[in-house]
Amino acid sequence: MAILKAPPAQPKNETLQLRVSQDLKFRLMRYAEFLHANASYVVTAALERLFRKDAEFQEFRASYKPGKSPDHSEEERPIKNAVNSLTK
């Protein structure tokens, strides 16, 4: 039996381009600096928390039937698990 555990599988990352106000970008960057993290982590963790806390969204997802579009993939469990382990 191995003494050390294998590192957790890293989730597949996607690139997302957003347009935000200068003020929002400034606050995002300062918050990331405050956490000693990067902006991607802050956005990912904030969205995961939003999705987890929004009861109406939970109901919507439970009844949602995804189409064949690659942008609406339901393969989010690895990403969700990785972010949850970082945000707990």
Q: Assign an overall shape.
A: extended
Enumerate the spans where pLDDT stays under 50 for 5 or more consecutive residues.
Answer: none
List SSEs in N-to-C order.
HHHH
Helix content: 55-70%
> Helix tally?
4
Tell me the radius of gyration. Answer: 16 Å
Structural class: mainly alpha
Brief description of this entry?
This protein has 88 residues and is mostly helical. 56% of the residues lie in helices and 0% in strands.
Write the layout of secondary structure elements.
Blueprint: H1 22-35, H2 39-53, H3 55-63, H4 77-87
Helix pairs in contact: 1-2, 2-4
Structure explained in plain terms:
Helix content is 56%, strand content 0%. The chain has four helices and no strands. Helix 1 packs across helix 2. The relative contact order is 0.13.
Features:
mainly alpha
